[in-house]
Amino acid sequence: MLSTDSSVIWPSSSSSSSSSSSSSSSASSPLLPPPLPPLLLPLLLPPPPLPPPLLLPPPPLLPSSSSSSSSSSSSSSSLPVEIAISPNNHEVHIYQKSGNQWVKSHELKEHNGHITGIDWAPKSDRIVTCGADRNAYVWSLKDGVWKPTLVILRINRAATFVKWSPLENKFAVGSGARLISVCYFESDNDWWVSKHIKKPIRSTVLSLDWHPNNVLLAAGSCDFKCRVFSAYIKEVEEKPGPTPWGSKMPFGAVLAEFGGAGGGGWVHSVSFSSSGNRLAWVSHDSTVTVVDGTKGSTPSQLKTEFLPLLSVLFISENSVVAAGHDCCPMLFRCDDGGSLTFVSKLDLPKASITRNISAMERFRNMDKRATTEDRNTALETLHQNSITQVSIYEGDQSDCRKFCTTGIDGAMTIWDFKVTDTHRDTHTQTHRDTHTQTHRDTHTQTHTQTHRDTHTQTHTQTHRDTHTQRHTQTHRDTHTQRHTQTHRDTHTQTHRDTQRHPHTHTERQTQRDTFLVRFIN
């Protein structure tokens, strides 16, 4: 680009100066040969001085991943890392990583309303933005300055989402006008024009994602629907081949439609897999849904116990990462049979540290917060507010090695998926071993306690029975012995009395008999 500009600027200035010099020399000395043709004259003159080094544009920085509404990052082993973000206003700030710090390098100011979508094309090094001012701009880096090109969207409501196609020859913009603007470059007029997909969209379009074939477009909207459209534009691409989603693809055709049958919620995010055969989306009713185009149109839906998810992304053909109002990315797996399962949270909570509260702090808390506790409002997760976007940082959707998340808390977190996966397996194994050991200890303790209780109860009952039996036998023996002894003593005493006074006994018997006779008579 610099050599082209030089070739345009330098010959014009050289030819004018040389023509003036030649005319003056010919006027002073008419015997000189006629001047050479203008095209050959600059070759005989000394080359003009080079422009200052500070005016040279830096080499283009190609981002390796793109993102929508909040951020766009680039990573490469040989090129610097850059990120484009919008701080919830009408500006776009581009930061470049320098060591461990992020340094602001550019500010893009063209929108009149706050920006709602950003996407960075990694191959062509162009940034597309859309905003609440119903406009979209394509930014290109020229001479070290990002220059905008207006896009003719033809919408009467705010734009909500923007996404480059895989070949970067077109992009799609969702809006509150209940339509999708598919934009492509018109070289004759040197601007970007659009075609509209309207039917059967009945509400605001919240999310978009392109199929790898650069033709199919998935859209999620506020009418609880997830649809797959054809965005084929014959002016910029060849006729596509058949796919599992359909074979005939005229522009605007609806190839698939899911959701909205008596339930659901706003479709916040959609994502195609690397092969394009699977489509995932998340809704405001805390559900995650995956459908396989090669196995019919029956989606596999998982109702989670978490807060609503706002972003979803395929990181492999069978793995999905989603995040949202729980401030933590979560991993889901979809097996070959189409069954969707929740694996785990990827943000393991840090151990909280409790500290003692002094008397002065306790008094201050009572005075300010009407409580005696020192309440810490910080969350255990890295993000302190809702995560609005998940995007690939290193790798691609078939083999993602790192992904990044951005949130309302203004933070961007880069996650090493392989390390996270290994750490999760280690944590799961540790948890399993701990659970097994705890179960074993609990079982042993319970068994010992039960055995001890049973033994004590049996021993007590046996002791009680033995004691009762012994007491009864002792009582019986004592009673028998006492009765026998008493009877023996009585009999002995009577016998002694009889021997001692035999007449007394006879008289008493006679008197008793006489009394009985009288009583009878």
UniProtKB/TrEMBL annotation:
Q: Which residues form the signal peptide?
A: none
For biological process, the GO terms are: Arp2/3 complex-mediated actin nucleation
Principal location: cytoplasm
**Could you tell me where the Low complexity compositional bias lies?**
11-30, 63-80
Question: InterPro entries this protein is in?
Answer: ARPC1, WD40/YVTN_repeat-like_dom_sf, WD40_repeat_dom_sf, WD40_rpt
The protein's UniProt keywords, in alphabetical order, are: Actin-binding, Cytoplasm, Cytoskeleton, Nucleus, Repeat, WD repeat
Q: Which intervals of the chain are annotated as region Disordered?
A: 1-31, 61-80, 426-521
Q: Does the keyword Repeat apply?
A: yes
Compartments, as annotated in UniProt: Cytoplasm, Cytoskeleton; Nucleus
Ranges of compositional bias, category Basic and acidic residues? 426-511
Where is this chain compositionally biased, Polar residues type?
1-10
Cellular compartments per GO CC: Arp2/3 protein complex; nucleus
Query: Which is an annotated GO molecular function term of this record?
Result: actin filament binding
WD repeat positions: 108-144
UniProt record similarity statement:
Belongs to the WD repeat ARPC1 family.
What is the protein name for this chain? Actin related protein 2/3 complex subunit 1B
- The scientific name of the source species is Oncorhynchus kisutch (Coho salmon)
